[in-house]
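Late entry, evening session. Most of the bench is empty. Finally got around to the prediction I had been postponing all week. Sequence below, unchanged from the version circulated by S.P.
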Amino acid sequence: MSLDELEYVGFWPRVGAALIDTVLTCLIIWPILSLIYPDYWVSERMVQGPADVLLSWVLPAVAVLLFWIKRQATPGKMAIGARIVDARTGAAASPLQLLIRYLGYFPAALPLLIGLIWVAFDPRKQGWHDKLAGTVVVRRKGGNTEPVHFDAGQN
């Protein structure tokens, strides 16, 4: 697939993809947390214990990174036909780029989500996390949700 057949994915489709991912994550993790910590939803403690940290923070991070590495997208991005690619070449982003992108969500979100909202105004639809990692989110032109595939050596 050539880069001419692709478009950058904008703010609202990416918000929709994030909502899909959030709902899926909650459907998996919340019942487990409720079983492990029966008072989870009424407790005033911010962290209930080691399983809470593991299930609420570590597992989602690992899952997201594995989806990005293996599929170039989370289920939400797959649902809208989007993929995360290297901004220079259009090829699959490297695992290091994807790790930087994930960690880049924190500084992007801290100042009132400005780094995430940036996607709406950037010409290449990059949030700060994308800029830090050198990635872009693309899909076939016209919102076609068929998967985007790249050859590893494609420039």
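Two things to note before I forget:
The first strand starts at residue 6 and ends at 8.
The chain has a mean pLDDT of 92.
Will write this up properly tomorrow.
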